[in-house]
Amino acid sequence: VQVKSKLQLHKRVESLVTPALQLASDYYTEQEMVKFKKPKKKVRKIRERKSKMLKADDLLVDNASGGNTEDWLRELGSRRTPQVNLKPDPDNFDIDSFNTNGEVPPEAVRVK
């Protein structure tokens, strides 16, 4: 009798009641979607500098400063390409170096 009672205690009791079945869905539910949401990044607002509104008078060349167009060319410095004189140099002109197609040879050109 005792052996029988011990065997019954060790038996596993399994229930045949299962939770209600659900149809598989191709779409996530709202609860499932919450799990996949990425945290929102904080948006840093960069202050826009209030730029001075330009007027037509600001765009005109100042006559008080001379308005010389060569001034801004001098400020370019090494970024400015050298001016090339395409006229042949009479001191260095050689008939043998003259091309028949009308081009000036590079050694006859002076760079200012």
Automatic annotation (TrEMBL):
<comment type="similarity">
    <text>Belongs to the SNU66/SART1 family.</text>
</comment>
<keyword id="KW-0539">Nucleus</keyword>
<dbReference type="GO" id="GO:0000481">
    <property type="term" value="P:maturation of 5S rRNA"/>
</dbReference>
<dbReference type="InterPro" id="IPR005011">
    <property type="entry name" value="SNU66/SART1"/>
</dbReference>
<protein>
    <submittedName>
        <fullName>Uncharacterized protein</fullName>
    </submittedName>
</protein>
<dbReference type="GO" id="GO:0045292">
    <property type="term" value="P:mRNA cis splicing, via spliceosome"/>
</dbReference>
<dbReference type="Pfam" id="PF03343">
    <property type="entry name" value="SART-1"/>
</dbReference>
<feature type="region of interest" description="Disordered">
    <location>
        <begin position="80"/>
        <end position="112"/>
    </location>
</feature>
<dbReference type="GO" id="GO:0046540">
    <property type="term" value="C:U4/U6 x U5 tri-snRNP complex"/>
</dbReference>
